[in-house]
């Protein structure tokens, strides 16, 4: 909200529209019982926050994580509104999830939790109402369970018209070729736009990645293709470093066989977690959780660029320090927008009964993000402000125009 208010002040956002956007449209909280494998009944808490739908259906991820609550969902839903608007998608913002640690449950239990959560949300989601997608600890399989559950509650004659209630599905269930790498690809597309703007060659540049899940891996994969060198990775299990470079595919294979963690990787040295952000590198890609770059460590950063693969990895005070030191920040609502852009094309191909080739998908994502990057930079220049504020203003201008043209009912 501090970021929103700052941008709204600079652009002199209409007072009435400001009031609308400062609050959410709907907040759904559900408590639902599920039978465990041993016959016990447990009750779970699930949430879905719908921020604004002036541009189109609510859109945003569902996460399974112990930190999921209504406040976290609010913040993430609001970010989704700005993100969709900035990239030019016909979506509003939504977010939610279930407050659980999925590692504690069997596959069968996770399926029952997912299906009962979907059933509890009822008509609050739908292909033209609110379209969830994968997020932290959720994946294509979970999306397939949601799609099947939602569609199964509809008339048999309309069942196939409801499968795109979610995006991020397996390809065989209507998913998009390339959706798995869309967010990471978008991060690198934004980095390429930055490098072009600055006249920088990415080949040979050193970068570090926080988080080596889907986004961290694919961002590293595409950076490696450009000739950049991954020298350090950090996740919940620790930090690894290799000045000569870390092989992205080899680390990915290790993580896949090590419960999703980088610990124990042989071709890199273990190092203290608190030294990660102070490493000598050109680019940092935070692709884990929020509030990682703060007032406490921003002054240690030596990189020229922070490319925000995660949502909210840099807090307000930390960013002030970065900007004062001349370090560029590609804001999350631009940098990680490849995911929602890929979701849009999956939703579109489902509505049209089409299937896009992966090369076409990546090209379309790149074009959308290049346009959004240019829009962000130009807006920042126009208002003489930083890129995050420029991105917010560009997003808010589109929403403001919609309200001005349509008016407010009644």
TrEMBL record:
Binding site for NAD(+): 183, 214
Active-site residues, Swiss-Prot/TrEMBL: 95 (proton donor)
GO-annotated molecular function: glutamate dehydrogenase (NAD+) activity; nucleotide binding
Record-linked SUPFAM superfamilies: Aminoacid dehydrogenase-like, N-terminal domain (SSF53223), NAD(P)-binding Rossmann-fold domains (SSF51735)
Keyword vocabulary terms for this entry: NAD, Nucleotide-binding, Oxidoreductase
InterPro entries membership: Aminoacid_DH-like_N_sf, Glu/Leu/Phe/Val/Trp_DH, Glu/Leu/Phe/Val/Trp_DH_C, Glu/Leu/Phe/Val/Trp_DH_dimer, Glu/Leu/Phe/Val_DH_AS, Glu_DH, NAD(P)-bd_dom_sf, NAD_bind_Glu_DH
Domain of life: Bacteria
Site (Important for catalysis) location in chain: 135
Residue ranges of domain Glutamate/phenylalanine/leucine/valine/L-tryptophan dehydrogenase C-terminal in the record: 176-407
Binding site for substrate: 59, 83, 343
Example of a GO biological process term: L-glutamate catabolic process
Protein family membership: Belongs to the Glu/Leu/Phe/Val dehydrogenases family.
Protein known as: Glutamate dehydrogenase
């Amino acid at each position: 909200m501090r970021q929103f208010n700052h941008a709204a002040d600079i652009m002199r956002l209409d007072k009435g529209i400001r009031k609308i956007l400062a609050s959410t449209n709907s907040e759904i909280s559900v408590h639902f019982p599920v039978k465990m494998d041993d016959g016990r009944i447990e009750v779970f808490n699930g949430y879905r926050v719908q921020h604004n739908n002036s541009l189109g259906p609510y859109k945003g991820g569902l996460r399974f994580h112990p930190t999921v609550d209504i406040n976290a969902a609010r913040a993430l839903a609001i970010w989704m509104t700005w993100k969709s608007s900035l990239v030019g998608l016909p979506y509003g913002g939504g977010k939610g999830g279930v407050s659980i640690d999925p590692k504690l449950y069997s596959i069968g239990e996770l399926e029952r939790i997912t299906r009962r959560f979907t059933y509890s949300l009822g008509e609050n989601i739908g292909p033209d109402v609110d379209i969830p997608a994968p997020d932290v600890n959720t994946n294509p399989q979970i999306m397939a369970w949601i799609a099947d559950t939602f569609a199964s509650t509809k008339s048999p004659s309309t069942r196939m018209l409801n499968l795109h209630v979610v995006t991020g599905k397996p390809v065989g269930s209507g998913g998009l070729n390339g959706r798995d790498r869309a967010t990471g690809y978008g991060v690198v597309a934004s980095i390429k736009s930055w490098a072009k703007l600055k006249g920088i060659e990415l080949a040979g540049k050193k970068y570090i990645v926080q988080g080596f899940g889907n986004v961290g891996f694919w961002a590293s994969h595409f950076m490696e293709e450009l000739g950049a060198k991954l020298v350090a990775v950090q996740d919940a299990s620790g930090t690894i470093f290799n000045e000569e470079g870390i092989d992205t595919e080899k680390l990915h294979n290790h993580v896949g066989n090590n419960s999703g963690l980088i610990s124990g990787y042989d071709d890199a040295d273990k190092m203290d977690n608190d030294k990660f952000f102070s490493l000598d590198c050109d680019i940092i890609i935070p692709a884990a959780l929020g509030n990682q770059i703060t007032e406490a460590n921003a002054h240690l950063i030596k990189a020229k660029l922070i490319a925000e693969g995660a949502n909210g990895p840099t807090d307000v005070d930390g960013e002030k320090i970065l900007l004062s030191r001349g370090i560029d920040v590609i804001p999350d609502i631009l940098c990680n927008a490849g995911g929602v852009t890929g979701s849009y094309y999956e939703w579109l191909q489902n509505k049209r009964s089409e299937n896009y080739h992966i090369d076409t998908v990546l090209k379309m994502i790149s074009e959308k993000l290049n346009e959004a990057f240019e829009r962000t930079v130009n807006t920042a220049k126009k208002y003489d402000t930083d890129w995050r504020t420029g991105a917010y203003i560009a997003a808010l201008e589109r929403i403001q125009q919609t309200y001005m043209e349509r008016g407010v009912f009644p």
